Amino acid sequence: MTLETISETKCFGGRIGFYRHASAVNNCDMRFSVFVPPQATSGKVPVLTFLSGLTCTEENFMVKSGAQRMAAELGMMLVSPDTSPRGDDVPDDPDGDYDFGLGAGFYLNATEKPWSRHYHMYDYVTQELQRAVFDNFPGDAERHGISGHSMGGHGALTIGLRNPDMFRSISAFAPICTTLDSPWGRKALGHYLGDDTDTWRDYDACEVARSVADGSTHSKILVDQGLADDFRAEQLCPELLEAACAQSGLPLELRSHEGYDHSFYFISTFIADHLRHHAVLLGH
């Protein structure tokens, strides 16, 4: 796979870069960002892939989270892909809304036209992005975790739980915990997957958590949720994830925080905790 370097900048003794490549699964160019810590000069390092939320690109997490300082201390590589396919030929929300289409790929494989030609973010994250990262950067594929925020938190939970051999650790900030019972989820999955809600279950974090055969074999999942988050009750429903994990025996630490909202200020406040969580499980 050929990568085009958009920019690279020194950061906390390491390097942060933004890259573009042709994507076969999404039939368009895709972008992603990587922070390589200074320890990578001596060998392969653990990797955390962070999936961002609605309206975001590959830039938001790297620019706003403040994660690089702690990642440099821990010797952890950070990877953040774009949130959807993009391009003149990629269809968008016909009404121009922010919660579907460009910037809102929901980390799934669309089956309905016209979305099915481009919107294959599940395959992108689990296949193509893996090759782009591990063929070109000094990351250790055996020590790989996944995290995300909101729509990206939903992606981290569903992708991480469905691919335990690929992702050894999972966390999320204010994730959409149910697409079956969330207005954002129902709109997106209805367009991408059609009206048969049985086909949605692989992309519903609660359903995936509930289906885990033996939750005790999985590492503990860390989820942080702000109690001043305007989306918590209607769109995110963390209590449903808590119930689903309890049913399957999946270890979950769900932390609630007074006064915190849905923004990157919330993420930047607790990102160090998440990086330490992954570092312990990945054996940094």
Describe the structure.
- The protein is α/β, with parallel strands linked by helices and 284 residues long.
- It has one domain: Rossmann fold.
- The protein contains nine helices and nine strands.
- A hairpin with a 4-residue loop joins strand 2 (14-23) and strand 3 (28-36).
- Helix 6 (205-211) packs parallel to helix 8 (238-248).
- The model has no long low-confidence stretch (mean pLDDT 96).
The computed structural class is alpha/beta
E-strand count = 9
Uncertain regions spanning at least 5 consecutive residues: none
* Oligomeric organization of the protein chains: single chain
Cα separation of the termini: 28 Å
Write the layout of secondary structure elements.
Blueprint: E1 4-11, E2 14-23, E3 28-36, E4 45-51, H1 60-64, H2 68-74, E5 77-81, H3 121-134, E6 139-148, H4 151-162, E7 169-173, H5 183-193, H6 205-211, E8 221-226, H7 232-236, H8 238-248, E9 252-257, H9 264-282
Parallel strand pairs: 4-5, 4-6, 6-7, 7-8, 8-9
Antiparallel strand pairs: 1-2, 2-3, 3-5
Helix pairs in contact: 6-8
